[in-house]
Hints:
The protein has helices at 14-27, 43-52, 69-75, 92-100, 112-131, 149-160, 177-185, 195-209; strands at residues 2-5, 32-36, 60-63, 81-85, 103-108, 136-144, 166-174. It contains 8 helices and 7 strands, in the order βαβαβαβαβαβαβαα. By secondary structure, the chain is an alpha/beta fold. The chain has a single domain, classed as 3-Layer(aba) Sandwich (Rossmann fold). Bound molecules: adenosine-5'-triphosphate and magnesium ion (MG). Adenosine-5'-triphosphate (ATP) binds next to α1, β6 and α7. InterPro entries: DNA_Partitioning_ATPase (IPR050678), MipZ (IPR015223), P-loop_NTPase (IPR027417).
Amino acid sequence: MIVLFGGQKGGSGKSTLAMNVGALLASQGKDVLMIDGNSTQGTLSNWAARRESTELPQLTYVEKSGNLYKTLDSLRSKYDHVIVDTGGQDSKEFRTAMLAADVMISPIKPTQADTETLVYVSSLIEQALEMNAELKCYIVVSQARPNPRIKAVEETRTLVSSLEFFSLLDSVIYTRKSYEDAVAAGASAAEMGDKKAAIEIENLVNEVFS
Ligand SMILES: Nc1ncnc2c1ncn2[C@@H]1O[C@H](COP(=O)(O)OP(=O)(O)OP(=O)(O)O)[C@@H](O)[C@H]1O
Ligand SMILES: [Mg+2]
């Protein structure tokens, strides 16, 4: 399956989720390719490079800019899963990856400003669906704060309910230091020993991959 992390909001958690989902799939014995479609920033590929010098389950990674469609389409059958990370703005990488992806996940912080960026993403999805009618698009609330969590998540649910082409995942990703610490270690938050993070990433994967 080709899973794209994309959106129109910087810092929402796309690269973080790509790493954690990729690491979980690798730990399940899957053959995983990670594509860093935001190579000027290089968050995903730098993480994957650090992972190579660990004993953790390995994955393959590549940086790719420009049109990702052909690359993704040709690699689809060579891996169990291809995880693509793109930058926090409209880009050629984001638009062309949407044409090949099975699933697109847009993480958003549970705020009005972040949610509003999805209106634009929704218009990009509408165009992509003309070429890739099978594309499924999900929103996941990311970097939720534990205390007012129910309210923020419920408010987000209301805000996104009017958006076409998207469904909101039940899974919620909370703000956890382990997600930050894991980046420098080439690991996932779960591999850093955070059991709560492990469960929320498992829930996300189960929801999207089932
Ligand atoms: N659930 C989380 N808990 C704690 N910190 C997080 C979480 N998700 C992301 N972060 C932190 O927030 C920052 C931005 O996250 P990340 O790089 O994943 O966002 P992004 O959407 O890929 O950003 P960009 O659009 O710039 O590519 C990073 O410092 C990351 O460690
Ligand atoms: Mg990123």
